[in-house]
Amino acid sequence: MSRQELADLVNAWVHERLGRVACLTANYIGKLERGLVSWPNADYRAALRDVLGACADRDLGFRRPRRHAPGAITVADVDRKDFLRAALGTALSVPLADLLASTEPPTVPAVVTPADVQEIRTIAGLFTTWDHTYGGSLVREAVNAQLRQAVALLDKARCPARLHDDLHAAVGVLGHAAGFMAFDAYAHNDARRMFRLALACAEEADDWHLRAKVLSSMARQAIWCGDPDTGMTLVELALVRSDRLTPAERAMLLSARARALAKLGRFQVTVNTVGLADEEFARVRPEEEAPWMRYYDAAQHSGDTGHALFDIALQERCSDEASRRLTAAVHGHSPVYVRSRAISGIKLATLTMATGDPDEAATIGGHAVRDAGTVRSRRAADDLRELYRMTASHQRRDSVAELRGHIKEAVRA
């Protein structure tokens, strides 16, 4: 295996077995090989033992750092601040942010290699997983820095012709991940710029699948921002030559079209479009989909189409069908997709509060608030505010009053 292949296997092992996001890179594997790092953390050691078939850490050359002998004088025995001030001069007296100011631009290789392309794809996958699980607000700066580095490869490094499409597609995937994080954080102008970058990369790579994904996200942002007409236009643009797309991609785009139609108040066409999306989803074969489309499973489809029916369900049309789909989404989403589960749960609670039993709605809403409390998502927070407004007419009920208190705490946090 190459260093990157080994790193990818370790990251996948940690995610699948431990449910955590790992960020091991080819560079770190090189440090392990050269002995610059002799004792990686417990997750990495366990993954490396399993992936490489080793029985013990020592079989991989790992050595626990030596402890100081009893009675030895260490830095812990002196005043740490005085010690550091003496060693570093006035460094500790300046603002901490200034210590992180970049003094040298990141280096860009002279020639792009397959490993560079794979590293961009791996980074994009990790950030996408993080975004699904925790929301994008906390690591936006990190993904933006990685995107700048990736774009520098396009601008400054010589790319062999055989890697031209792969490199542009990889940068496009990373640009899409950054754009969706910005959208979730309501940095809408940033999101639009990053989506346009991703779309340009998809066009340059002649990648119809990535093009469809980026246009779908652009449409979702437009619809969310109150511009369903633009959302419809972007969806229709993505569906040009839909024969080149996979069933999951067509189902995704038709679900977005249904969302726009619902916002425009076109009841029957919304229902018909949801039916067309269902027909496409019935043809999905997960193994034939691109990596960035693997998320579009039965839970995601139920959630997307349930959201499309939500607006017309509030007008007492198709409320049972919208509720059924949102319920399937809540129960079907795995912990990796906790943000999607939270948003579908909030919508389900809102719909039930408006058209059903307020006590049942309070129970559903309580679960959704707990999920929402684990992510940083401006979209989820706004949906919570909508649920809070919907509870006003039932606030004298104990269960609803308790839910309102939890929503206040979650939004404030």
Explained architecture:
The protein is mostly helical. It has 4 domains: 1-64, no CATH class; 111-206; 227-332, no CATH class; 338-413, no CATH class. The chain contains 19 helices and no strands. It has helices at residues 3-18, 26-34, 42-52, 80-88, 96-99, 114-134, 140-156, 164-184, 188-204, 208-224, 228-238, 247-263, 267-281, 298-313, 319-332, 338-355, 358-372, 378-390, 398-412. Helix 13 (267-281) packs antiparallel against helix 14 (298-313) and helix 17 (358-372) runs parallel beside helix 19 (398-412). The radius of gyration is 25 Å and the shape is globular. It starts with a helix and ends with a helix. The mean pLDDT is 88. This is XRE family transcriptional regulator. It comes from Sphaerisporangium album.
